[in-house]
């Protein structure tokens, strides 16, 4: 029985205290299959001829650990699911590794774990294996979570940035920058009172709906660190195409626009955690857009631009004032520890 | 081009600086397949009817980051391979996620990455995907690495602690406690000059050799945090058997024995990073032992005890002095941040 209210170094030591923490806080909620050192897994989709296994990993160090619209656990589950989904993979299984600073509240851990379990269940994914380590005070900042996801790419599906062709249409599923803006506001350094919430959401079901409606989708990316600008630059570079977007049609909440104006931030570089951009041949764009808009996480979907033959590797924006500007990648980022 | 000698927050920001760090330090060495957000993988062994996928994850926070016999990268690769191998899985792919403290030397990162790549290659495993995050000074301790491993369990193979039966023989592949003792000495708090080296090693090839020679192996565990004592207690509990070991035959280096005597430590609880314990029916014990001894990482293999019907769930040791004592699990551990 775990009686402690705070995590101590003993909880990381491999002994009875660690077992109590793991069993009560983690495995009681995640209910992983079996109790060996590894999960042992089967899924008939993996053995279909031509199916491929997708694997991705992400470490999460977001501060604050809990914020409007999510917490480090929700973001870890959603972020890893999204990395699988934008590649056309159906997410199957997640691992979760926790690095905990001595003194971390057990109640906080329980909330994070509950949030992960709920998000995984909604996405139809299982958290099948995990690990906990404890480090002394000052050797970490509260809690870090690393999730790894395994999924299956059905035969014949091959989303890749390199497949984008001039003329393809760029679509996003919703407003830009909500996550970055919400984190910034939640840090409390600014005396701003806002209703901003992170867009943190799992996009596996959305991607499946889009791919069913528009099987010709070329590529998708979730616009996390570095924002939409980083995702588009990476895609332009990989495909050797130019990308033009139109500022007038970029979906943006009034609160995010306002925050950016006050602080001199550019929403194109703000991180998102439930926002993807995809490219689709023009004839399939209406179907892709409609499939997105039919789902809550795509309700704010919009066509934002297209791939061009001119200026390969470059992203340009038609501004509100009728000018054009290059949307470059930042060297660093506007905000550290956004995810 | 990466010109910096130390990691800054900009290297975690999702922009050009991050891309430079990732491309030069990580992907140039790991050479993952493709440049999408996810690895896309195929292996014919995964589609054999009855094959199962094995998945395991571990976070590594060992201090010091480099120590005699290894570093955090080697231990991360070996530890995850071993968690797969002791379950009977053939390791296939690893992910690696790095949480880096601002100010970490780029040269240190390069050494850790080189060490991971070398160890993975020797084990026949590929590091296929990864992630880096940077946190400010004081928000982490140098470098944390989380690895996740995926492997395949061939059809019909089912190692599990619950399968151990009274009469089964316990075998370890080499001396106990080398890793814990080497880390303790490397921390330099003791004015001890020793030749101790961590036993850090990947045991995938060893397990395959043992399973070929002794297909009846019931279960195996790597004796990491909590040492041999934790591994045996866990196995005794899962199988509902007693376990008896004999102190006189436990393989132990003179230096480790000496260090334990000076410091009042018990080598049964010292962590290992290349040491496993397995249980095998008595008629297959000679073959399993010989298969281990034929390999360098099993050269010091020894039969150390057996499972019994008496005292289910308990581990007992016949001591050097002819007495018996219970080998319990510790509540915490003797040393924090051992892996």
From TrEMBL, chains A, B:
One Pfam family this sequence matches: AIRS
A GO biological process held by the record: protein maturation
Similarity comment: Belongs to the HypE family.
Identification of the protein by name: Hydrogenase maturation protein, carbamoyl dehydratase HypE
Species, as recorded: Phaeovulum vinaykumarii
Annotated PurM-like C-terminal domain residues: 165-315
The PurM-like N-terminal domain, residue ranges: 49-153
Matching SUPFAM superfamilies: PurM C-terminal domain-like, PurM N-terminal domain-like
Cross-referenced PANTHER family: CARBAMOYL DEHYDRATASE HYPE, HYDROGENASE ISOENZYMES FORMATION PROTEIN HYPE
Superkingdom, natural source: Bacteria
């Amino acid at each position: 029985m775990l009686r402690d209210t705070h995590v101590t170094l003993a909880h990381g030591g491999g002994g009875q205290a660690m077992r109590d923490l793991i069993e009560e806080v983690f495995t009681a909620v995640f209910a992983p299959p079996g109790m060996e050192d590894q999960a042992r897994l089967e899924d008939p989709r993996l053995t279909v001829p031509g199916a491929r296994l997708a694997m991705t990993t992400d470490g999460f160090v977001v501060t604050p650990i809990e914020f409007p619209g999510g917490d480090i656990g929700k973001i870890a589950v959603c972020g890893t699911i999204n990395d699988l989904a934008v590649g056309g993979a159906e997410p199957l299984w997640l691992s979760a590794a926790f690095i905990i600073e001595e003194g971390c509240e057990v109640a906080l851990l329980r909330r994070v774990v509950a949030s992960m379990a709920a998000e995984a269940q909604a996405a139809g994914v299982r958290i099948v294996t995990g690990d906990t380590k404890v480090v002394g005070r000052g050797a970490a900042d509260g809690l870090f979570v690393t999730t790894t996801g395994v999924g299956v790419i059905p035969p014949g599906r091959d989303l890749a940035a390199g497949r984008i062709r001039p003329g393809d249409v760029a679509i996003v599923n919703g407003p830009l920058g909500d996550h970055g803006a919400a984190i910034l506001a939640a840090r409390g350094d600014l005396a701003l009172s806002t209703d901003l919430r992170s867009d943190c959401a799992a996009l596996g079901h959305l991607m499946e709906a889009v791919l069913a409606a528009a099987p010709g989708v070329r590529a998708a990316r979730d616009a996390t660190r570095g924002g939409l600008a980083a995702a588009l630059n990476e895609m332009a570079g990989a495909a050797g195409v130019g990308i033009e977007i139109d500022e007038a049609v970029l979906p943006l909440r009034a609160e995010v626009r306002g925050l950016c104006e006050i602080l001199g931030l550019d929403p194109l570089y703000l991180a998102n955690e439930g926002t993807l951009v995809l490219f689709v041949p023009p004839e399939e764009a209406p179907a892709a857009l409609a499939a997105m808009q039919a789902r809550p996480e795509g309700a704010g979907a919009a066509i934002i631009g297209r791939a061009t033959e001119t200026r390969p590797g470059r992203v340009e924006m038609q501004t509100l004032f009728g000018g054009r500007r290059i949307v470059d990648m930042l060297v660093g980022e506007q905000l550290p520890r956004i995810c």
